[in-house]
Write a structure and sequence with these properties.
Blueprint: E1 12-15, E2 21-25, E3 34-42, E4 45-46, E5 60-63, E6 68-74, H1 75-78, E7 82-83, H2 85-92, H3 98-107, E8 111-115, E9 129-134, H4 137-149, E10 153-154, E11 172-177, E12 180-189, E13 201-216, E14 224-225, E15 227-233, E16 238-244, E17 255-266, E18 271-274, E19 280-285
Parallel strand pairs: 9-12, 12-14, 16-18
Antiparallel strand pairs: 1-2, 1-7, 2-3, 3-4, 3-6, 5-6, 8-9, 10-11, 11-12, 13-15, 13-17, 15-16, 17-18, 17-19
Length: 286
């Protein structure tokens, strides 16, 4: 009998095999009897969970909620050995760097969980601590702003220059406490259980060129997963909603960006633009 788990964005599942694999769940919407997920680790080797290229071809299937192909596991396989982020944090809490424990105490969300390398005991000295949290996003972000105002949160020094990061960034940053600095990513989930497909997307091509981000689609949308922004595709003069699941594209400020995005249209004619698959958003000017 298959147990029921609330497999949503950021959960890790262990897939039997030789070597054993870990996959990470993507999104909140899944086809009946399936779970959308991408490979994360194969044995000791870390894979890029943002890409579907390393997923076996037999796992790919068309998913209208996404407007294209997505790798999927059977519900039976995905629920065989899930890594529950909420209970994993409890198990590993005392192993976490002290500044991360301070961060969790200050933010104090309704739910907090652990994902990434720390969740599967594969962390090393340079590993960020990847956290999933759920609660009032306004209160969570206000707590982060309070830490930043006290000089506790420090900018993350990413090696990848395409990240449009800025010094005021709080969700993908570092915390210094007691002379120790630890870096983290913090993903504020919109839901903690799967949802029905809210829209049907159809891919209509790519857009390359300048894009102006006007602001959040709804209040606090820039800090939630996924983040959503009102925008204009300047070369076409077309309004679109930029939707991204990438931590690196949260907290974006209004301004003009150089974009390479996939375009989708929903059943109501609305345009969604996504930089997540082989795309980019690079800040140009305010």
């Amino acid at each position: 009998m298959t147990r029921t788990y609330s497999l949503v964005e950021g959960w890790i599942v262990e897939v039997p095999g030789s070597p054993a694999e870990y996959w990470v769940v993507k999104g909140y919407e899944h086809p009946p009897g399936k779970v959308v997920a991408t490979p994360y680790r194969r044995g000791s080797r870390r894979l890029d969970p943002r890409s579907i290229k390393q997923a076996p071809i037999w796992t790919l299937g068309y998913f209208p909620c996404r407007g294209g192909s997505a790798p999927m596991l059977s519900l039976e396989a995905a629920t065989a050995k899930p890594v529950n982020p909420w209970s994993t944090l409890e198990i590993r809490y005392r192993d976490l760097p002290h500044p991360i424990r301070v961060l969790l105490e200050e933010v104090n969300p309704e739910l907090a969980g652990l994902t990434g390398s720390w969740a599967v005991f594969a962390e090393d000295g340079g590993s960020d601590v990847d956290l999933l949290i759920y609660g009032d996003p306004s209160e969570i972000y206000t707590a982060l702003e309070s830490l930043a105002s006290r000089g506790v949160i420090k900018p993350h020094r990413h090696e990848r220059s395409h990240y449009p990061l800025h010094s005021a960034r709080l969700l993908d940053s570092c915390i210094k406490y007691g002379g120790v600095t630890s870096c983290y990513t913090l993903r504020i989930l919109r839901h903690t259980s799967p949802r029905e497909c809210s829209r049907r997307l159809t891919a209509i091509g790519r857009y390359t060129g300048p894009i102006e981000i006007i602001g959040e689609q709804e209040p606090l949308d820039s800090i939630l997963v996924p983040a959503r922004y009102r925008s204009v595709l300047l070369r076409l003069g077309v309004e679109a909603v930029v939707e991204t699941w990438r931590t690196s594209y949260q907290e974006l400020k209004p301004g003009v960006y150089e974009g390479d995005l996939e375009l989708f249209v929903d059943q109501h004619g609305g345009i969604t633009a996504s930089p997540d698959l082989d795309g980019k958003l690079k800040y140009v000017r305010a």
